[in-house]
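Progress note, sequence design subtask.
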């Protein structure tokens, strides 16, 4: 159990997340207006979005399909009967005076997301529900010294609100959950998961309790827009509640905001100030009734999701859970890895563990250093480099150097090796000559080695590698050196 040590004993943190995920769809939930990000203000607004009198919403079937697809990806119940309600509140960015949402009867019910925790454990987190709703517009406070402008482009865009059970127990687990959920949404192609652009926003509900006690009163931190901030907000909020309770105070059910510059949460409104949304079924919309076969068809078309892919990578390629987890986090990375392994899963594929090692440790490392992505180096080209290593035409050390040049120039590995004269020296004669030179130059170390200081073998090995500019086959150097030193 993860606990936090307070002044008066241990506390457990309890967290449930509400995620707003923007649906990938060319048109809005109830209108045909486009949804492109970053368009000029108020250029993507239909009469429906602007709530002109007499305008009627028409459901976008594709958005419904996306919600169903997401529900299936979350292993959740799909409700064949669901209802759209009006959630009434007044705000300048909401021209209708209500948001169309789903309340008592959402389109998706209970589901499960599996987390791979850093300690190797797997944890199931319950999904309470997923419902469809409209996004609101945006108030612009920076366009005029004393006026607020309103941009309605976002108004009416489809959102999926995904609510988790209070199953998370630390800020770190919340981060793992968010990453996993985002990964699933991206695999499904139902939300791009881009938190900076606001396509994924998170409300964090946080409470603390003594281990074994019932859940405590929670506060809700609204609209946090990065995974790091969600974690910081939870950590701050848990500490605040613990201190409050240890001083004899009680936690009030309230809504708070996270100030990312100061790293603190602040009161936004108390429960007494909470809105009464006066929900009621939207009389302009019929209940949403789905065809069972239609849902089955969507299910049959689901892609292989991260959990299944990870299991397959472990079973078929013999990868560790960790390596498989890293590779499947993004669909593009997993596809890339499989393209490098090649051979259609058959006999003539490349060594899967060797490839995983090179992709995870060398390629990812160099790409992030160079600010590039896997799109900058086609899988066949990267595979060409691995082939040279396997065929011992280039040493692993030189291959890393070749990769750096490949990322800058886009040239073939073989060509770079030839141009830079990096061919691995596997010629026994050349290696013997280098070994002989080192043994003469390092007579003192050789004597010490022979007298029992066996650690010096590594040093001598390094000297030979250096004498050959790292191009010698380490395996051959090792063999020759051992032989010349008297077969120890
Ligand atoms: P509301 O409708 O007021 O938002 P819900 O019961 O739907 O309330 O809960 C919203 C979120 O709060 C869910 O993600 C749930 O897991 C979480 N939650 C509920 N109780 C607690 C608690 N005691 N501590 C932390 N999170 C909680
Ligand atoms: Mg809520």
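Output:
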């Amino acid at each position: 159990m993860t606990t936090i040590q307070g002044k008066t004993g241990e506390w457990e943190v309890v967290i449930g997340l509400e995620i707003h995920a923007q649906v990938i769809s060319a048109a809005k939930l109830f209108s045909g207006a486009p949804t492109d990000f970053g368009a000029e203000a108020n250029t993507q607004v239909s009469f429906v979005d602007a709530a002109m009198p007499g305008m009627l919403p028409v459901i976008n079937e594709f958005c419904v399909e996306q919600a169903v697809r997401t529900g299936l990806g979350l292993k959740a119940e799909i409700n064949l009967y669901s209802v759209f309600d009006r959630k009434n509140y007044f705000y300048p960015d909401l021209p209708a005076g209500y948001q169309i949402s789903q309340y008592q009867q959402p389109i998706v019910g209970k589901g499960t997301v599996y987390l791979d925790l850093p300690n190797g454990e797997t944890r199931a987190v319950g999904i309470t529900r997923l419902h469809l709703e409209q996004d609101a517009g945006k108030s612009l406070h920076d366009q005029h010294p004393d006026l607020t402008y309103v941009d309605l482009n976002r108004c009416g865009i489809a959102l999926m609100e995904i609510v988790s059970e209070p199953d998370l127990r630390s800020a770190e687990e919340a981060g793992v959950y968010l990453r996993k959920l985002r990964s699933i949404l991206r695999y499904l192609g139902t939300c791009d998961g881009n938190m900076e652009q606001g396509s994924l926003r998170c409300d964090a509900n946080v409470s603390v309790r003594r281990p074994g006690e019932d859940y405590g009163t929670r506060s809700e931190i609204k609209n946090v827009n990065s995974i790091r901030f969600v974690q910081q907000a939870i950590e701050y909020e848990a500490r605040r509640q613990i201190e409050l309770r240890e001083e004899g105070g009680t936690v009030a059910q309230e809504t708070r905001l996270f100030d990312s510059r100061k790293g603190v949460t602040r009161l936004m409104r108390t429960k007494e100030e909470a809105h009464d949304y006066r929900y009621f079924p939207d009389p302009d919309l019929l209940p949403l009734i789905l065809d069972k076969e239609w849902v089955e068809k969507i299910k049959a078309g689901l892609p292989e999701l991260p959990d299944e892919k990870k299991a397959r990578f472990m079973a078929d390629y013999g990868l560790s859970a960790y390596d498989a987890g890293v590779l499947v986090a993004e669909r593009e990375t997993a596809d890339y890895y499989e393209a490098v392994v090649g051979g259609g899963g058959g006999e003539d594929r490349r060594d899967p563990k060797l490839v995983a090692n090179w992709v995870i440790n060398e390629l990812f490392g160099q790409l992030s250093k160079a600010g590039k992505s896997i799109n900058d180096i086609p899988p066949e080209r990267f595979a060409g480099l691995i082939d040279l290593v396997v065929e011992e035409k280039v040493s692993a050390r030189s291959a890393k150097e070749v990769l750096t040049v490949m990322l800058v120039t886009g040239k073939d590995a073989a060509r770079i090796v030839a141009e830079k004269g990096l061919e691995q020296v596997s010629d026994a004669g050349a290696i013997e000559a280098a070994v002989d030179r080192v043994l003469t130059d390092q007579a003192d170390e050789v004597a010490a080695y022979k007298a029992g200081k066996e650690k010096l073998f590594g040093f001598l090995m390094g000297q030979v590698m250096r004498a050959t500019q790292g191009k010698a086959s380490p395996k051959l150097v090792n063999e020759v050196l051992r032989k010349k030193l008297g077969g120890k």
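The longest strand covers residues 10-22. Work on this subtask will continue into the next period as scheduled.
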